[in-house]
Amino acid sequence: MSKSNLFRKKTLEMVLSETEAAEYKLKKTLTAIDLIALGLGAIIGTGIFVITGVAAAEKAGPAIVLSFILAGLACAFAAISYAELASIFPIAGSTYNYTYIAMGEFIAWIIGWDLILEYVFALPAIALGWSGYFTNLLASVGINIPAWAANSAWQAPGGLINLPAIGILLVIAILNYIGVRETATVNNIGVAFKVFVILFFIFVAVWHVKPSNWQPFMPYGWQGIFHGAAIIFFAYIGFDAVSTAAEETKNPAKDMPIGILGSLGISTLLYIAVSAILTGVVSYTELNDPAPVAKALNLIGLNWARGLVSLGAITGITTVLLVMFYGSTRIIFAMSRDGLLPPAFSKVHPKFRTPTLAIYLITIATTLVAGFLPIGIIAELVNIGTMLAFILTSIGVIVLRYTQPDLPRKFRAPGVPWTPLLAILFVLSLMLSLP
């Protein structure tokens, strides 16, 4: 990156020419329904099935419902900014490319690495949650994985390496390797099943809610609510991955805003319902567990439902891994195509049209991390990187409205500059609440 190019900016013409170049061309196969499913695939999973329990037990108590609303508001304002930029620039790379266009190459280089590190830490954290539910499901049918093979040294006494977490990451890598259409199809099936399981849990568990479990409602005060929102922000980062799919979408100008805003709205409603019922069924003090929904069902004696919910959690978390893995490889692909990473990372497979070396890199990095770090530390590292990406995207909307007012905006964020400014304000407040 030469000094003369430090603040070079991309134009819309450059973006469009990149997406049409034969050597970099990706398959345009995704529809609005696929994008909503990608968003639900990425958002609904770890947040409901893993992070909710830890955040309720240690940060917010039953007021975790308010934490989800607060985090959802922050994401809603940011999502509006994402929707506008994704409708203008149909290109892989998400915030990295938006920043490149609005603020120049140097800032884009920083946020590109921020996003790569975000995904490299997010994927192992999600895989650890998957491992917890998978181990729990096997134990329910009498199959016990040895402690040394199911936990890292940080997770449990006698732990050595988390083999289930590493194994699922390898499966996800293979799916991403063979193509985006195949990845989307598997994701759509998984999303349908996990939404069914979540609705099933709501219907079954709501009859066991005891209002006394919601007392005290705010055991950690407003500070706890903000701390809880900062931690569960991790659950919402999926819609950022949706925006990385713009280059492989049939009609990105129309479909990207539908995919981003639709998936976020549906996910927020489900999060609020599940967290309210979960803390009503079981005391929040009992929820500090890597599989809190399954544990709640076990504690109230619904063992017959425990297996189904565990299977739904496994499916749900698998789709999160699918979409997040996909997003990480597209950011590496975009940076390589721009010359900010070695050119080998932007080479695509002649048959599958996927960035193979980027897939290899993410596979190696995430499987190594998955075996050795606890989920709490990983979630905190991921959150601050995601928050920075949301802030820069919101700034990008304001900058481009004033510097390039004539861009063809198929979706216009309402209330600019106030809407993106609210996103920045909400996200900064959550960032300051991180440990």
UniProtKB/TrEMBL annotation:
Q: Which GO terms describe its molecular function?
A: amino acid transmembrane transporter activity
Q: Where in the cell is it found?
A: Membrane
UniProt entry tagged with the keyword Transport: yes
Task: Note whether Protein biosynthesis occurs among the keywords.
Answer: no
Its signal peptide is none
The UniProt entry, under Pfam families, shows: AA_permease_2
Q: Which terms in the GO cellular component ontology are assigned? A: membrane
Alphabetically sorted, this entry's keywords are: Membrane, Transmembrane, Transmembrane helix, Transport
Stated membrane topology is:
Multi-pass membrane protein
**Membrane spanning segments where?**
35-57, 63-85, 106-130, 160-179, 191-209, 221-239, 260-284, 304-327, 357-378, 384-403, 415-434
* UniProt-recorded name of the protein: Amino acid permease
Lineage runs: Bacteria, Bacillati, Bacillota, Clostridia, Thermoanaerobacterales
